[in-house]
Write a structure and sequence with these properties.
This protein is mainly α and about 90 residues long. The chain has a domain at about 50-90. Helices cover about 45% and strands about 0% of the residues. It has 2 helices and no strands. Keywords: Membrane, Transmembrane, Transmembrane helix.
Amino acid sequence: MTSVLSTPPNVSEITSPPAFAAIPNTIDSTPVTGSSGTMNGTQQQRQRGLRPGTIAGIIFGDLAGIKVLAMIFCYVYQIRKRRKKVVTGQ
């Protein structure tokens, strides 16, 4: 009995490009200074942290998530409480 794959495929017919890995840029912890001793363009702007609107959005999202979890907990608690009453006959 002969195998269908008795002849190896032609390797020269492969048309896909070779794979490569992307290497991220590293960020230095010390600022880059120019010849005059001042910081360069992108590092000249001070990072002030999050804007008040962003903080309010995070707080609102957290409170909404906690409310949804509390509602689910109360719903499951009531269902279990009702089942327990039916089983005990009270």
